[in-house]
Amino acid sequence: MIVGSRGSALSLAQVDLFEKTAAMSFDREIITTEGDEDQKTPIAEMGGKAVFCNAVEKELLNENIDVAVHSFKDMPSEKTEGLLVVAVLPRNDPTDCLIGEITPGCVVGTSSPRRKAQIKNKFKDVEVKDIRGNVETRIDKWRDGEYDAIVLASAGLNLLNIDVGQKPLDTIPAICQGIIAIQVREDDQNRKHEMIKFNHYETWLNALMERELLVEIGGDCHTALAGHATEMIFKAEMFEDGKHSGIIELERPFGGWDMAQKLREGLDV
Known about the structure:
This protein has helices at 9-22, 34-37, 43-46, 54-61, 113-122, 135-143, 154-159, 189-195, 201-217, 256-268, and strands at residues 2-5, 27-30, 67-71, 83-88, 96-100, 107-109, 127-129, 149-153, 167-169, 180-185, 224-229, 233-240, 243-244, 248-251.
């Protein structure tokens, strides 16, 4: 079985975790994506986070690989025809974390529209600048003084065993942050049955709810949308045209459709 992924240290660590979870050895195919080749252009200008998935999905469709491993938060809201996410691994820490200190007038590095909006809403007197590159590159840019602070996903630092004194950031994370998705061809019945055995049911249910919200909102690369579901609570917020929906909390079993309506109501207030 050939498993394909990006070649970043984080992507390879995700494949390592999948291999450990599945208790089996894989042949690996490293795939260079548009997002890997261009480390300078803001992701939104390149067409959104799908730039990290498209090349891998193409290899899967062309049957050059059997299974694709993705960060679920990087996958677009619309399902790719012919492909199916059949399993997710247990969710890692979904939170964002702050590296460095936020003080009045400081420069904070992030390229995420969601993180930009949340930082500006939470800390009024800061400058938020785009930052590109893998986890290690971004940390190096912070160490070199290009930024006073940067925001990263806690899950990535955990997987890479990186500790630079990061602190949890009290914000709602991205849809499916901290979740690793396992994708196969829809017509590959053998792989579907083989991979679904590794699906973590609780994480799967929460991921479905969060992605339902993403679809209902019509989320794209410019959408500043946050959402995090647990067994008990679904929390979300949205920023649009300078407006903030406020933080919405719904008790389960309300799902993504209900949350989308609440967020729109919040923006209309």
